[in-house]
């Protein structure tokens, strides 16, 4: 059965249609078959019946559909892009070591991958958070902190990877990179994992500890421990470990303290400059805390009590003299504490 240009069926020439007449003639049989083919598998406009066959679209699309609300509803591209894809996005997997940059003129909206004002992050915290969102696999992530003074503390987050991330400053001149906080710790590790901090100077005023670990391990080296409102190194349930030489250039309440945690500084050189004063004590271990510090060399002098071991705390020096730690006042072991 032919159609007009608008798609309307055209009655064949020489035929006359009579209402309520059964179509049996050859032309009208063709018409009936044509119409039948067109409606086979179609859906009534009322939507009250289920389709009985596939609905070929001929390369065209269904448009202006609503977002799905039921389990069997079709989903629009926009719905998939904004909902499913966002939820299904996987972590980026590193295939090589990666370095993020932090600068005083950076911006946390940058990628952090370029050492420039338009590419670097502004805060170490942003870099740490970005690393935490990666799958580092067997590769190491680094945070390169460029020379300058930074006033924000950093909370070290858990991460996915086999190697500890490294936050580093200026290896040759660590005093060029200064973390100076007010009322906050410079670095806090509660991640249960290992982070490494090196090549910078740490300071705090009002309150704040330089390196504080409540869960996990902070490894440190080539650090200049400057003036501190509280203590330089505190392991409260966590662990801090010196992996290389470092220096003490400022006063503090204490240098090392461990409470239900551990501080390890074996076989290294600690250089004290300017006779720093410790208003409380140089090292303290209490409540099952452990200071493990032997075969290390302390160059320079300090004022204050040398050590305090109490309430089950232990300070292990492998038999070093009671004058081993810097200070001007004798140390004590009391209330079940041990110095040995």
SSE layout:
Elements: H1 26-39, H2 77-88, E1 98-102, H3 124-132, E2 141-145, E3 148-150, E4 154-156, E5 166-168, E6 177-182, E7 187-189, E8 194-205, E9 211-213, E10 217-225, E11 231-236, E12 239-242, E13 246-248, E14 252-259, E15 262-264, E16 269-272, E17 278-286, E18 290-292, E19 297-299, E20 307-310, E21 314-316, E22 332-334, E23 338-339
Parallel strand pairs: 1-2, 2-5, 3-6, 4-7, 5-8, 6-8, 7-9, 8-10, 9-11, 10-12, 10-13, 11-14, 12-15, 13-16, 14-17, 15-18, 16-19, 17-20, 18-21, 20-22, 21-23
InterPro entries: Pectin_lyas_fold (IPR012334), Pectin_lyase_fold/virulence (IPR011050)
Overview of the molecule:
The structure is a single chain. The termini are far apart. The chain is elongated and about 125 Å long. It has helices at 26-39, 77-88, 124-132; strands at 98-102, 141-145, 148-150, 154-156, 166-168, 177-182, 187-189, 194-205, 211-213, 217-225, 231-236, 239-242, 246-248, 252-259, 262-264, 269-272, 278-286, 290-292, 297-299, 307-310, 314-316, 332-334, 338-339. Strand 1, helix 3 and strand 2 form a beta-alpha-beta unit. It has two domains: 87-168, no CATH class; 170-340, no CATH class. The longest helix has 14 residues, at 26-39. The chain is mostly beta strands. Helices cover 10% and strands 31% of the residues. It has a 15-stranded parallel beta sheet that branches. An eight-stranded parallel beta sheet has the order 4-7-9-11-14-17-20-22.
């Amino acid at each position: 059965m032919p159609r007009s240009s608008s798609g309307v069926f055209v009655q064949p020439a020489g035929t006359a249609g009579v209402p309520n007449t059964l179509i049996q003639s050859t032309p009208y049989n063709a018409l009936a078959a044509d119409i039948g083919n067109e409606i086979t598998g179609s859906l009534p406009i009322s939507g009250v019946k289920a389709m009985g066959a596939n609905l070929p679209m001929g390369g065209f699309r269904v448009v202006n559909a609503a977002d799905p609300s039921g389990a069997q509803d079709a989903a629009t591209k926009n719905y998939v892009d904004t909902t499913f894809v966002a939820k299904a996005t996987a972590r980026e997997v590193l295939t090589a070591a990666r370095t993020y940059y932090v600068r005083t003129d950076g911006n946390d909206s940058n990628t952090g991958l370029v050492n420039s004002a338009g590419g670097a992050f502004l805060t170490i915290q942003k870099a740490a958070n970005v690393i935490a969102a990666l799958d580092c696999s067997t590769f190491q992530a680094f945070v390169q902190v460029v020379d300058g003074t930074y006033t924000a503390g950093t909370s070290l987050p858990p991460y996915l990877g086999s190697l500890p991330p490294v936050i580093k400053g200026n290896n040759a001149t660590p005093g060029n990179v200064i973390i100076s906080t007010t009322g906050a710790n410079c670095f806090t590790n509660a991640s249960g994992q290992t982070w490494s901090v090196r090549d910078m100077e740490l300071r705090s005023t009002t309150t704040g500890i330089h390196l504080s670990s409540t869960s996990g391990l902070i490894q440190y080296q080539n650090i200049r421990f400057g003036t501190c409102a509280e203590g330089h190194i505190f392991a409260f349930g966590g662990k801090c470990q010196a992996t290389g030489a470092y220096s003490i250039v400022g006063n503090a309440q204490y240098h090392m303290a461990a409470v239900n945690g551990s501080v390890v500084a074996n076989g290294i050189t600690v250089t004290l400059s300017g006779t720093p004063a410790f208003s409380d004590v140089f090292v303290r271990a209490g409540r099952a805390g452990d200071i493990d510090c032997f075969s290390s060399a302390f160059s320079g002098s300090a004022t204050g009590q040398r050590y305090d071991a109490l309430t089950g705390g232990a300070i292990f020096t492998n038999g070093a003299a009671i004058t081993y730690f810097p200070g001007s006042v004798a140390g004590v072991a009391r209330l079940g504490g041990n110095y040995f």
